[in-house]
Amino acid sequence: MRRIGTTPTTPDLFADEAAQPSAAERIGPQSFVYRGFALSWVDRLLPALESVLTRAPFRHMVTPGGHTMSVALSSCGRFGWTTDRNGYHYSPTDPHTSLPWPEMPAVFLELAHSAAEAAGFKNFIPDACLINRYIPGAKLALHQDRDERDYQWPVVSVSLGIAAMFLFGGHARSDATQRVPLFHGDVVVWGGEDRLRYHGVMPIRQAEHPQLGEQRINFTFRKAG
Fold first, then answer.
1. How far apart are CA 67 and CA 19, in angstroms?
2. Which pLDDT score is estimated for 54?
3. Closest by alpha carbon to 150, among 176, 118, 109, 121?
4. Which pLDDT does position 197 carry in this prediction?
5. Are 160 and 218 in contact (CB under 8 A)?
6. Count of alpha carbons within 13 Å of 169, Cβ hemisphere only?
7. Residues whose CB falls within 8 Å of the CB of residue 190, separated by 6 or more in sequence, listed in order
8. What secondary structure does DSSP assign to 92-110, as a single string?
9. Which residues are within 8 A (CB) of 159 and not within 5 positions of it... i.e. 6 or more apart?
10. Sheet of strand 164-168, all strands in order from the earlier edge strand to the far edge
11. pLDDT of residue 22
12. Which element (helix H / strand E) includes 25?
């Protein structure tokens, strides 16, 4: 997963804020950050991710307004998230190949189910995994995850690679946001009354991770259909 042609970088943005593995932090009534939750899964996650990307490589999608996203995306599972001139939506096929999205690896399903259960959301079986790749400078504007059919299920977000500053807001775009640093192996789960909170990612700072190089990989698991 290491990117080719990386250059020496400055120390990690959050080097003086070491994450506490296995610690849990509540960031909303039904929202949690689980520090280091995915660390024990990484050796299985990365080969599974490589397999997915051989069939559905990362691409920079173009928004309905004509803007090319700084974040590169892929998907796996029964549905993949995409965009076209009609807006954002889920599709059972990759629009670039017209083939079904790659099957969601078992280790992805196991991790998503385990994290959701830790947060009190039982029986969560995602049918869509959006995979984002951030390189230094990439960001994600505040938005709601509202393309799913049923909001009773949580969103499970897994961070790998270099650190990011996650923005977690309220139910209106203008609401104040929390700044939550996320490290390699951290998992965020939000659902219930928090399911439609606005959230985003601040521009990624220059850094390098020992396993993943100059990138952050993020999985977000949802129940789309």
1. 34
2. 97
3. 121
4. 98
5. yes
6. 19
7. 27, 28, 30, 31, 32, 154, 155, 168, 197, 199
8. SB-TTT-SBPPPPPHHHHH
9. 38, 182, 183, 184, 185, 186, 187, 188, 216, 217, 218
10. 140-143, 199-201, 164-168, 178-182
11. 63
12. strand 24-28
What span, in angstroms and rounded, lies between the C-alpha atoms of 84 and 220?
20
Q: What's the full length of the chain, in residues?
A: 225
Segment-wise mean pLDDT, segments of 10 residues, the chain, 225 residues: 35 45 88 97 98 96 84 97 83 94 98 98 97 97 93 97 98 97 98 98 97 97 95
Note whether 182 and 159 are within 8 A (CB): yes
Amino acid at 162: I
Which residue's structure tokens are 């700084």? 70
| Chain centre to alpha carbon of residue 205 | 17
